[in-house]
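<goal> How does this chain fold?
<sample>
Here is the protein in question

***
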Amino acid sequence: ICNANANALGLSNTSNAHSQWKFVHPSTLDKKAPFTVSDNDKTVYYNINSVGSPGYYIVPPSGNNTNATTSNSTDDNVIKTGAWYFEMAQEANETDWCSYYHIRNAETGKYLYFTKEDNNAGACLIMKETIESGNEDRYMFTWAKTAATEANYYIIPKLLKDKSLNKFSALQRDNGTLKTNLTRGAGNYAWTFVSAPFCLDPVITQAV
């Protein structure tokens, strides 16, 4: 692929490795999500763990905080709040190769909701009870594999998926704050989805 001056287009520099491209059919791309999608028949729970900050995982707001954040607590009650499940929100189609998912908290059933209009704009995730008409895209997220050989992934809000041609608008852990920024790296932009045992507290009623 060349520009008008017949110079090869490169991702970041003029080296051969960054100026070589391969054309593939959409069917050759790996579209299988790195998590099991929950439905009416089965719910599968995950902790969403930071790669760049080992031990930290995404949790919903607590106390006076209104934004989802991360925690490295080993307390069982806190760990339990950090269990999530994924629902299909919009399947890939001919005009959009990405599938999008709702990310819901296991304890409350609330949805992660993206609040910003652009990258690097501060804390960007709050919780919502229900899906609001007209704001459906703010509840949707997709994923992409990082360049690492391990099972590390970006989490990308639907609203920002087309912000850059050669970088991802990925969810980033920044000193506890969850925000998005453009990246092709990993570290605090990368996440793993780890199966989490989860069971709601039993409700005991007295027999009449």
